[in-house]
Write a structure and sequence with these properties.
By secondary structure, the chain is mainly alpha-helical. It has a single domain, classed as Up-down Bundle (Cytochrome Bc1 Complex, Chain C), CATH 1.20.810.10. Helices cover 65% and strands 0% of the residues. It has eight helices and no strands. α1 packs across α2, α1 packs antiparallel against α3 and α1 runs antiparallel to α7. The two termini are 42 Å apart. It is an enzyme of class 7 (translocase). InterPro entries: Cyt_b/b6_C_sf, Cyt_b/b6_N, Cytb/b6-like_sf, Di-haem_cyt_TM. GO terms for molecular function: oxidoreductase activity; quinol-cytochrome-c reductase activity.
């Protein structure tokens, strides 16, 4: 179930990235250029976003197809698999207490039908969706200035800003290596952490590691926000 969650996280990132390109403003044009360069670094793995993949369908059209059909359909299918795994493996109890206390509390809890949990998930999903729609209406992102090819004067959206310093320090390859290391760490986590103990108060090393990761993400994001945009493509 953890691994399907990691893949869902990656699909969400793909939707954010392709959506950024589809705005087709200056920020999008620069992301488009990075897309092409990264496809070259990835070789065959980046075939979908390569200019040499096909002469009949432009890269922008393929990005649009990925954004409105391929990624959403894959996401919907994986959400179904994720929910089936939740039903099979059960919902974890609150982790506060010793493993024995957690087991006793779980045994004493009333058992609800899985459809009841689905209804609760739908309820909160609609609330979050409503808030997101309200925020998008009150503070729309908007479209930036018309794109001018050959220059880099913008920075990525805030959710990708943490990658910007790595690109400054190590070049375009960092945009492949840094996310790959992050994903590898997330995938390895359930295999490395085999302890039955789940109470955060007794898992200080892991909590400290999580705290450091959050601080690193926040620090890199702030550092990128205050830094001056520089050119990376062709540098």
């Amino acid at each position: 179930m953890w691994l399907t969650g990691v893949v869902l996280f990656l699909l969400a990132g793909g939707l954010l990235f392709t959506g950024t390109i589809l705005k087709w403003d200056q920020e999008a044009l620069e992301a488009y250029g990075h897309n092409i360069e990264l496809s070259k670094l990835l070789g065959f793995a980046g075939f979908w976003f390569s200019n040499t993949f096909t002469d009949t369908v432009s890269l922008l059209t393929r990005t649009y197809i990925a954004h409105i059909s391929i990624l959403p359909l894959t996401l919907a299918g994986l959400v179904g698999v994720h929910l089936l795994l939740v039903k099979k493996q059960k919902i974890s109890p609150l982790p506060i207490g010793t493993p024995e206390e957690v087991a006793r509390r779980e045994a004493a809890e009333p058992t609800l039908r899985f459809t009841s949990h689905l209804a609760r998930i739908l309820y909160w999903t609609l609330i979050v969706l409503g808030l997101a729609l309200l925020l998008s209406a009150l503070r729309p992102t908007g479209i930036g200035p018309e794109g001018v090819d050959g220059i880099e004067i913008t920075k990525p959206p805030w959710y990708f800003l943490w990658l910007y310093p790595f690109e400054d320090w190590f070049g375009l390859k960092a945009l492949v290596v840094a996310p790959a290391l992050l994903v590898a760490g997330l995938v390895a986590l359930p295999f490395v952490d085999r302890d039955d103990e789940r109470d955060p108060r007794r898992r200080r090393p892991w909590m400290a590691l999580a705290g450091l990761a959050i601080l690193a993400w926040a620090g890199l994001t702030v550092f990128a926000f205050i830094s001056v945009p520089v050119s990376h493509i062709g540098a």
